[in-house]
## 1
Amino acid sequence: MKKLKKALLVLFLLAVMLIVALVVYGFYLKPKYEGKVKLKKIQKETTVYFDEFGVPHIYATSSEDAMVALGYVHAQDRLWQMELMRRIAPGRLSEIFGSVTLKNDRFFAGLGIEEASAKAIAALDKNSPSYQLAMAYLDGINQYLDEGTMPLEFHLIGVKKEKFTIKDIYNIFGYMSFSFAMAQKTDPLLTDIRNKYGMEYLKDFGIDGSFNTTRIKNAKDIPQEYISIAKSIASLLEQSPIPSFVGSNSWVIAPKKTKNGKVIFANDPHIEFSQPGTWYEAHIVAPDFEMYGCYLAGTPYPLLGHNREYAYGLTMFENDDIDLYQEENNPTAANSYKTPNGFSAYEIRRKTIKVKDTADVVLNVKVSRHGPIVNDLIDGLKKDKPVAMSWIYTQQPILILDAVYRLSHAKSKADFHKGVALVAAPGLNIMYGDAKGNIAWWATGKLYKHNEGVNRNFILDGASGKDDIKKYLDFSKNPSAENPNWNYVYSANNQPEPIDGFLYPGYYLPEDRAKRITQLLNPKSNWDKKAVSEMIFDNTSSVAVEVVANLISNVDYDTLSSTEKEAVAILKAWNGSNNLGDVAPTIYNKWVYLYLKNTFEDELGEAAFKQFLGTHIMKQIIAKQVANKGSLWWDNVATKNQKETRSQILSHSFKEAMTSLEKQLGSTVAEWTWNSVHTLEHKHPLGSVAGLRGIFNVGPFGVSGATEVINNLFFDFTDDGNYKVKGGPSTRRIVDFSDIENSWSILPTGQSGNPLSAHYDDQAELYNAGKFRRMKLSKQEIVRTSTKLVFIPRKK
């Protein structure tokens, strides 16, 4: 008995020692939010105040010192995220994850981002402030890398330290630019439909822009293998450990429409969720500069920001800046292809991808005059039918470093405008408001035209030259509005009005959010911060109500069961809201999914239908098609000797939806609440390991919102009826120039990417409830309510 007691005591002591060791280790790995740190290359003492949500407020005697401090504190909270971000574009994820990420690496290594980055860097003015301050930021990261504690992920995976360089910054911007593009998902699918069924079947798709009736007002006078392109590239982006940029809302209200006579600015960029989240907030104060900004990991200048003078943000323009070209190989020489001037040799780029725990993979990427041949980069494509990807980002001068520097360091609206004009890709809607009462919206991107009759929704002819770009447009032709007489500007990724009679091609989102935004903005002229905060969390779709009316009109009410009649009654009374306890959106989304499946899958096939569900066109088509009795898609091509009608398809889909919902959620319709099926979990790359999920992932939560409402928490349609949120507002920001010291923001989880930090997930519940925290600018309040970390110059 004594021996047993002794053994138990020893085990107990060992357990205590292990717990103590883990606690000590945890404290060791935590970010340092107070105390003193010696740094090289800062000239004078620099103080960082971390507020109650972990946002650093950096006070320095020079911009250079401030940027070194920014790099250091950004790295201590987000080094793991920085490491992932810089590895994607050059194809270096497999070095740390192994062959599971090899497909991603093959694709991105071949795109040409790394080569374009090198070319842009070679042309940089090394004496420019944009370059000098970027190097100071990198120095801060690298000092943390040298002397700070490495993230938990580095220890678990075995990541080796490697200095950050200016090329990493450019590669991060390059990946961000590609993740905006929609052509790679959509063009091959449309080509296949056209080739199989003809142009008549595409009338319902609105690719001529006819569906986009709510347009942003300007203030100015395929064979089967093509489906594999879409499927493969979309899959790669979905599997990426870093999220894609997919949408966004923003509106800026002029003084004449606000209660206090000052500009109110609102922005919520929509990005696929991940943990850590996309943005890192930081406030910098130097004698010549002040900015409260939202930064991408590993980049020195904020893409979203404000100070006492102006505020800016972005949404995705959704213009088409990628074209796919069918090249024609030389039948007698495999490494050459046909051009308008005869055959030409492919450029061959040799790339080596290092793969953890296995042999290196060598790529020989063929590049035509249009761009890289994607057949060599993704699986499933026939090598004798090469398709090249032409992307504006890698073909035009990349001035992104100067552009984002100018946006965050502008001295006037005109100065800010110069920065906007420098962005060739990606296409963005840059939103602007200032303390002087100015509001503006500019669309960035190098826009271009083809010959008349060339349809960029399809894979183009690369051999003849007839489908090549014929004209690049001057920036003055980009859509924009400055101080319009309707007293607001907005963007919801919807199509702008034509300029000079030309409707810019793109992959614009449905008018749902745009229509709701204009419905709310137009009648009201006394906007304040509280009203804007309610609007930015708005969960209502007026378009969904119209769709429901069309759906119900095709159902024979007399043939319905009592449960089905109860569901119809709920839908009839629905105002389009998607709140936690609503039942109608649960019924609506199941019905819509099954209507789409029963309408399109017979023609497209299972794989292409799944791809169709991932495009903006799917979202565009619903409202118009359910109202179109004569659509060719209603007929099921798999049934012989009969022709299905709209009423048959929609009625059958409703019956299926009800059966499915009863099986999933029970027979009590009142219990089919939206929060029981619409859930959000912020996933970390290591959270896929069951034992680590609770450490690294945040959630799951039942959430309000839905696809294409202002609070755009979007999801994929699936057979099981569980709508797992993929993405949504990556931040919600409201800047009120009548109370600039107390503008509002919120992040989906938290400021820190370190799971041991108190700020890893401390904003999640506020975010889910539509609440905000203040973005403080008052030094007196910041000092009073914050912890203090002081950087001291290290003597040589």
Note: Residues 111 and 372 are 6 Å apart (CA to CA).
## 2
Amino acid sequence: MTRTGLLLDFGGVVTTDFYGALRAFCLRERLPEDAIETALATPAGHVALAAVESGAMPQREYEQTLARMLDLDAEGLLSRALADLRPRTEVYDLVYRARAAGIKVAVLSNSWGTGAFDPYAGYQLHEWFDAVVISDQVGMRKPDPAIYRLAAEYIGIQPGECVFVDDTSRNLPPATDLGMATVLFSDTTSGVHEIERLLCLS
């Protein structure tokens, strides 16, 4: 099958290692390196994350909630936690080549809310991508199948003609159920090669 659409997660795919950035921050704060991941896996953490990602909780409230769970200063917590993220140049190069080949490309991101901290600033997403779908701005989040369908609709491609790429495994099954080819992005080189293969770019 010819795939003509590409949906990319933001943190950890378009950017450098998302979970690595969180762990580095925790170590700087003299916490266990998995402290944020552990907090978010608790019932309260799960509820707060779902709320901010879907736009039901303001970013500032989420920042304060996470700060209480970690016993840290809430001021600028989210920007400090993600300070190590950078654009992943290999993926930007892939996006350029994909679009040059006529493939429509979108970012599909679960967000930590819209507020004082903008994790997307400096990435020029609206210049590099055909569509940008941010969870809190559309009121739904991965792994809700509706947001995958919406992203495909935004680029005018049927879901079954898309490749979906994410660094979080639980976000892949809904895309598979919609007929998308999926890539778990855990390594830059192998991830880019697999996307190239699926899009016939290599």
Note: Residues 55 and 137 are 7 Å apart (CA to CA).
## 3
Amino acid sequence: MQADADLETALLGPVLAERSCGGCTACCTVLKVDAPDFKKPAGVPCTHLSARGCSIHAVRPGICRTWFCVWRRVASMPDEARPDRSGLLVSLNFAREPQNCFEGVSINVRLLAGSAAIENGLAAKVLDSVCDQLVPVWFSDGSKKMLMHPDNEVAQHVLSGTPAPEYIEGEVRAWRDLYGLFTPGEQAR
């Protein structure tokens, strides 16, 4: 858990003191939790969630004390992007068995049920605020998951190991340098 928290801080920055969860409890329902001291499936409200928030807040599990959504860490995200206001839950995810190099550690932007964030443009603003570094970004609308960063052409070259055209060669090289160990073409080297 401490290693995950340190990686979150390294990739996203520290928790911003000026932002608080307030009445937001989106993570208490949407996310899967698989920590040594607490487990719950995704999409199921935590058993400790009440109409007034966490019923065991003072003694909540360690994961609940140390985990924060990306909105709490990334100042460039709009203030209105708090999950309960925007209908978007943005998190840093760690996949134990990733399908490809872009799933191991990634930012995930989830559209929550009933959200108008696509129609009102907030989803685009949020994606712009997190697609600015060498961290893969995925978007999920509840029915499908799409890689948003890096763009498709760069991702295809990173995953396939094929030579990139000159205009994206530097970007492909940067992604390969960070994630190449996890791509088929790089493992054989």
Note: The beta strands are 33-35, 38-40, 49-50, 53-54, 88-94, 105-111, 137-140, 145-149.
## 4
Amino acid sequence: MTFTRHGPDRVSADHTGAPEALRGTGAAAALVDAMVADARKSGFRIVPRCSYVAARFARHPEWADAFA
């Protein structure tokens, strides 16, 4: 996952991917899950520039507190 910090309270999720060997294993989903947990713990919000992150967010409305 690549991301950009936009100040102390905003981080954009720019790209999420997994090597071919890990595709379909849930590795990319685990990265997004970890970013959401980190956002909640550290007090920043996620700007979902990555289409994968945006799609995961759409499936998890309970994450609304972690997204900008």
Note: The CA atoms of residues 44 and 53 lie 16 Å apart.
